[in-house]
Design goal:
heterotrimer, A mainly alpha, B alpha/beta, C alpha+beta, A: mainly alpha, Amino acid/polyamine transporter I, globular, B: alpha/beta, GMP Synthetase, Chain A, domain 3, 2 domains, 8-stranded mixed sheet, 4-stranded mixed sheet, UPF0353/GerABKA_families (chain C), membrane (chain C), transmembrane (chain C), Spore germination protein (chain C)
Chain lengths: ~375, ~375, ~525
């Protein structure tokens, strides 16, 4: 959060920052949600969802390209005037806040069921807050490094999942498009929140060192996330029976439960523990940008102090109330809706006027 | 200085807050390795647990307890009143399900905890026990390691030899819920102070126990289901070569090197047709009658194919008669004849009894052993 | 309250040091009367029995000549043969200046007593001549010195067997032998108020990043202390993050290591009176490299590199993993192993954390004991401690034998690191990990891992990222990280050093070129 030196992201860091944000809790439950909506054709929904995410992110880049040195929170007051702009910033803060609380809440929920059944939720949050502070206090370049490093450190995880291919029943995927396109489209809507994360380009774009690759980078990030989702979904669809998969809340983890090595049993626990690293690359950016936005509202306050207060409040919130599994579901749904607005609708709505504005400005110059 | 105080504070808070809630030291536990469920004559559910005893002072290597309870969890609570440590179910290797219990129509619901509680493993082997589960749990053979470990090894090796199937809890869940397949389990029996693998237990579409498939039919079932996994050895009696008046039987033994199943699915005349072309690459390991292989290996292939076909037909008939589809033909029906499948999917086993299933083995002899 | 007071005292001390000291205020010039000069000197050096003042008449000068020096800091031979003898010898020719007369390598005129004091303390001898307003500082230094020996900490199999000694000049010479090039430059900075010490900043001018050099110089010049006694003290005063357990500068006692770092564009800091050289900026990875890596075949050294990184993971996480598995996530242990572990744990009266901490502390004590004792006894202590205690503790049922294996394995792993500072840091991190594991099991370990990574990637050494080439990832530099690829593939200098000239190799001889 040191503003004196403009911190820069390399193209790879930018890609992995966005990719890391996209791959999170969604991966664990997505196969079930897709199966509920579209049966074993869910993977087609995923392709559609991925395509939509790519289009939306390209729109965002096309908007941000016009103002290469400003993040969204700096632009909003410029566009909308001081007070409306501030209100918009508050909305953005709320959005980022919603995202981090949803992801943290789900993380705690899963850990409480899967590994630490007795430990209260706020303790897990407290534990999680320490690395958050260590990394975020240094600013976006450290966050970028972290996301990139974690990406390389977790490359083995999809490989572990692939082991279940020996028990795959490819027949489950047939016939393709069995119930028509209706369920597939409705399934595509469910993938919205899994692909969320590309909207952080609103913030990350100005920090990108080599802006030529902004569009390419975000497409790469989306594509890589899509590949990860497809990998997991297809593995789950082939491993579980289509009648069975809807019974599991987190099919991806159950998938791993079946793997057994001579030297390590219960791969799911190991996997889930290390999956915390992946989850952290979802949580950290949202926390960072919450503070980033709020420091634009409260300029006099040291951002590092804001971060500290925010993290303490977070622990306190979980201490006062640990969300139930239904709360989490509602939160996820809410985030999904908000993401639909912030990630898809907003770029769609503002790219038109901005394009027109710049066209007319160009025309005037000539 | 400030940082020092901060770190100190952090450490203090951490140590104060954490009560090590999830901590259970290994020495305070009783790790359950084998669990059993049975139904007695009064239709009461009985739960059994067997755990290893580590103490050197104890004479026995493992402790076994049985309780009457309504649920599995309840049984664990009741057992905690008796055993030394806290019972932990995360390492259960084998579930012994009494045959009587499996005849109870809702038995699968009792296993809910295995799938709901994340700490339980789903890699446990599911086994049908023909008899009173009680007697198995109190069976302590002197020449064997702890019974749970012995059973685990026994089932694994038997499955490797394709004598029986190794159904893990996860597989059972899939098979029960999947409409296009009926579950199969390992069946064991205690016979004269020896625990013996009997073969494969067929369960109905609803999950209730139907019948036992004994080797070598069980091997054929597995060949059709999974292709080749592990070692497969078979012997055939070729009646054409039987020499009259001799005791020795005209038998030939083979090992199967590779199997590939190609299943064609169609729907005609109001019923499903499945044609399985099974390509087998085999090697002859034993032959008890004189035969000129160089000239007649084609004939030998034909004869073995014929024997296989007959055995398969018998097996399929058995399954159809008992309204079970352990082969998963239903999944093929779903994949290739979806429209028809949709109509019958809730009554697939009934529909399967009407289906025509043809197995066409295509044998090719790849090896003839060291002698001619 | 007491802490406050202590801090205040510390502050007061610092301000006192910065103000000019009393003698400097009345810095008197040398007079032309020797008797006055000698009086002044005896005033400055009171209670200094090793001060020698030798007055005699020379055949070349009119009046008294006086030689002043500190006994022990000068080379007696040099004084006798090159100063006293020429001055006392019968005159051959008249009118020769003092510079022609004395066969001493350096003679510099001195005019004030402040310099006289400094020069005498540095080991020069001062020559006062009656009737002259200047004295001569003669370079007759010769303090007790150690011969050049094999390095103690960083031993190597195939590398050179010369280590740095306590004299900066010699150390500089040792490095210059590897880089006989005019671009090898040295900047001298004097540090310390009482025990003034010469700090030589050494670099290859046309490849070093001038910004780094400036930052380093600024940091060294800003130091105001009594004295810098060794390299470690200097390091602590100029490092970026003093709260980190990790060393942020590489200290080496090998001239070849230092030279190789200088050639990569790094800066060497030589502190007089210390037998080690500080290398800045350093990266995390450089602590896992050793000179032998470059003198053995690349496949072998790549294997050893991998082994070291594996050892790092083991040394950091193994005891923690043991605790986590035994107290929390027993499900992970394979069945056969859990039965063995269960049997060996059965008699142990302590929880795993206490058991592990106890054994690890024993190990650390043994290690410290081994270092402090003379080497033959040190080895005995190691054997007695390792084997006898290990054996007895298991038989007494205080510790399980699996724990002994874990501790032994950890110990072996922590001895593999080529650098002592890094090994020490990892020892500390290990205890933190054990604490986390004992509270949250495997989740605790993963969180600890996250904190560790977060800390490492946010560390900087002279403003250069410490965790490079991992974060930020620099694919070029990965050639010399986990693996040590053949040298002819490493045509460029490591990019994490920010050197100004990246290329370091031209086209070398290759087999394919032969045709």
């Amino acid at each position: 959060m040191n503003k004196s030196v403009p911190p820069k992201l390399t193209v790879l860091q930018y890609i992995f920052l966005i990719h890391g944000t996209q791959v999170g809790i969604g991966v664990l439950s997505m196969p079930r949600e897709l199966a509920e909506a579209a049966g074993t054709d869910g993977w087609i929904s995923l392709l559609i969802g991925g395509g939509a995410a790519v289009i939306a992110s390209l729109l965002i880049i096309s908007v941000m390209k016009r103002y290469p040195n400003h993040t969204i929170v700096e632009l909003l007051p410029l566009f909308l005037g001081k007070w409306v702009g501030r209100a918009a910033i508050v909305l953005i803060i709320l959005y980022c806040l919603l995202a981090c609380i949803t992801v943290i809440g789900n993380t705690v929920g899963i850990l409480n069921i899967w590994i630490l059944t007795q430990t209260p939720g706020y303790l897990i949050v407290f534990l999680f807050v320490i690395p958050t502070y260590v990394i975020l206090q240094k600013g976006i370049h450290v966050l970028g490094r972290y996301s990139e490093l974690i990406f390389y450190l977790t490359l083995w995880m999809p490989v572990v999942l692939t082991i279940t291919l020996s028990d795959a029943h490819w027949l489950n995927l047939l016939p393709v498009v069995k119930e028509g396109w209706g369920p597939i489209i409705s399934g595509a809507r469910l993938t919205v929140y899994s692909f969320l994360g590309f909207e952080l380009a609103f913030f990350a774009y100005p920090f990108l060192h080599n802006k030529k690759y902004a569009a390419l980078g975000i497409v790469a990030a989306n594509t890589w996330s899509l590949l990860v989702f497809l990998h997991v979904t297809i593995l789950c669809f082939t491993y579980f029976s289509p009648d069975e998969i809807t019974k599991y809340t987190w099919p991806t983890l159950v998938l791993l439960k079946g793997i057994e090595y001579r030297f390590l049993e219960r791969v799911d626990i190991t996997f889930l523990s290390f999956y915390l690293l992946v989850l952290s690359t979802t949580i950290f950016p949202y926390v960072y940008f919450t503070i980033f936005s709020s420091s634009h509202l409260l300029k006099k306050w040291d951002p590092r102090k804001q971060l500290k207060v925010f993290l303490i409040l977070l622990v306190a919130a979980f201490w006062l109330y640990t969300p139930t599994f239904m709360d989490l579901r509602r939160l996820t749904e809410l985030w999904s809706q908000a993401g639909l607005v912030f990630g898809y609708a907003v770029p769609l709505l503002i790219s038109g006027p901005i394009w027109l504005y710049h066209r007319s400005a160009k025309g005037r110059k000539i | 200085m400030k940082a020092c105080i901060r770190i100190l504070l952090l450490v203090m808070v951490t140590t104060c807050l954490s009560g090590c809630m999830d901590r259970i030291d290994l020495e305070d536990t009783t790790i359950t390795l084998m669990a059993g469920i049975d139904l007695n004559e009064k239709n009461e559910i009985l739960f059994y647990l067997s755990s290893p005893v580590f103490s050197k002072e104890a004479k026995k290597k493992s402790e076994e307890f049985g309780v009457k309870a309504d649920t599995f969890r309840e049984a664990r609570v009741r057992l905690d009143e008796v055993v030394t440590g806290i019972t932990l179910p995360g390492k259960i290797q084998v579930y012994i399900l009494g045959k009587r219990f499996l005849k109870h129509p809702e038995w699968f619901r009792y296993l809910d905890v295995i799938y709901r509680d994340a700490r339980l493993t789903v890699n446990s082997r599911m086994v049908v026990y023909d008899g009173d589960v009680h007697e198995l749990f109190h069976f302590n053979p002197k020449d064997k390691p702890r019974l749970a470990l012995h059973l685990t090894k026994l089932i694994d090796t038997a499955a490797r030899r394709n004598v029986t199937v190794k159904t893990k809890a996860q597989d059972l869940h899939r098979q029960i819920l999947e409409k296009g397949i009926t579950p199969i389990l390992t069946e064991i029996k205690k016979d004269n102070q020896v625990v013996k693998v009997m073969g494969i237990a067929l369960l109905s579409g609803k999950g209730t126990y139907v019948k036992l498939i004994e080797p070598p039919e069980s091997t054929l079932l597995l060949l059709l289901l999974d292709g080749k996994q592990g070692d497969v050895a078979m012997s055939f009696l070729l009646p054409e070569h039987q020499e009259r008046g001799k005791i020795i039987k005209s038998k030939v033994s083979i090992v199967i090197k590779d199997v590939s199943n190609k299943i064609e699915t169609s729907y005609q005349d109001g019923r499903f047709h499945f044609t399985v072309r099974q390509k087998l690459k085999i090697s002859i390991t034993e032959r008890l009658f004189p035969f000129d292989m160089e000239k007649g290996y084609k004939q030998m292939e034909r004869e073995i194919e014929e024997e296989l076909r007959k055995s398969y037909a018998k097996l399929i008939e058995k399954c159809q008669k008992s309204a079970t589809d352990p082969f998963g033909f239903g999944m093929h029906a779903r994949a290739y004849e979806y429209e028809e499948w949709k109509k019958v999917k809730d009554n697939w086993t009934k529909e399967f009894t009407k289906a025509s299933v043809q197995i066409i083995p295509e044998v090719s002899i790849k090896g003839n052993g060291v002698v001619k | 309250m007491r802490i406050r007071g202590w801090m205040k005292r510390k502050k007061a001390f610092v301000t006192e040091r910065i103000s000019p000291s009393a003698p400097l205020a009345q810095n008197r010039m040398i007079s032309n009367r020797t008797s006055e000069n000698i009086e002044e000197i005896t005033n400055i050096f009171t209670l200094t029995p090793d001060l020698v003042i030798r007055s005699f008449t020379s055949n070349y000068m009119e009046g008294q000549v006086t030689l002043v020096y500190l006994d022990g800091l000068v080379d007696k031979n040099s004084i006798n043969n090159n100063v006293l003898r020429p001055l006392m010898a019968p005159p051959e020719q008249g009118g020769i200046s003092i510079f022609g007369l004395l066969s001493v390598s350096q003679i510099s005129p001195v005019y004030d007593f402040r310099t006289v004091e400094d020069k005498i303390l540095q080991g020069s001898s001062l020559l006062f001549i009656e009737g002259q307003r200047e004295a001569y500082a003669l370079d007759t230094n010769g303090w007790p010195q150690r011969a050049i020996e094999d390095p103690q900490l960083e031993t190597s199999l195939k590398g050179a067997h010369q280590g740095f000694v306590e004299t900066a000049l010699q150390n500089i010479a040792l490095i210059r032998r590897y880089i006989p090039n005019r671009e090898l430059k040295i900047k001298e900075i004097w540090v310390g108020q009482r025990g003034v010490c010469k700090v030589s900043v050494m670099f290859v001018e046309d490849i070093v990043d001038p910004d780094l050099l400036r930052i380093l110089e600024d940091r060294i010049t800003a130091i105001t202390v009594d004295a810098v006694l060794n390299t470690g003290e200097l390091e602590e005063m100029i490092e970026d993050n003093p709260y980190s357990p990790f060393p942020q500068f590489y200290t080496t006692e090998r001239p070849d290591t230092a030279a190789s770092h200088l050639l990569q564009g790094r800066i060497g800091i030589i502190v007089d009176r210390s037998p080690s050289v500080l290398i800045a900026p350093s990266t995390f990875v450089s602590f896992f490299q050793s000179v032998d890596d470059y003198s053995t075949r690349w496949l072998v050294s790549s294997f050893i590199r991998l082994l070291r990184f594996l050892a790092m993971v083991v040394a950091t996480f193994l005891p923690a993993l043991y605790i986590a598995l035994i107290s929390f996530n027993y499900e992970l242990i394979p069945l056969d192993l859990i039965l063995t572990v269960g049997e060996s744990r059965e008699r142990v009266p302590f929880p795993p954390l206490i058991e592990a901490v106890m054994m690890e502390l024993t190990l650390e004590m043994l290690r410290e004991a081994g270092i402090r004792l003379p080497s033959p006894i040190g080895q005995t202590v190691g054997i007695v401690g390792g084997i006898v205690i290990g054996q007895a503790v298991v038989q007494a049922g205080i510790v399980s034998n699996v724990m002994v294996i874990v501790v032994a394995f950890t110990a072996i792993s922590s001895f593999i690191f080529p650098n002592y500072d890094m090994a020490a840091a990892i020892r500390l991190v290990r205890f933190a990990m054990m604490g986390l594991a004992s509270m949250f099991g495997i989740i605790g370990i993963v969180i600890g891992f996250m904190i560790l990574i977060g800390h490492l990637i946010s560390l900087e050494s002279l403003g250069a990222p410490y965790a490079s080439p991992f974060a930020p990832v620099r694919f070029q530099d990965l050639k010399d990280t986990f693996l040590r690829l053949p040298l002819w593939l490493m045509k460029n200098r490591p990019t994490s050093v920010l050197s100004t000239q990246s290329r370091r190799q031209g086209k070398n001889w290759r087999k394919e070129d032969q045709q």
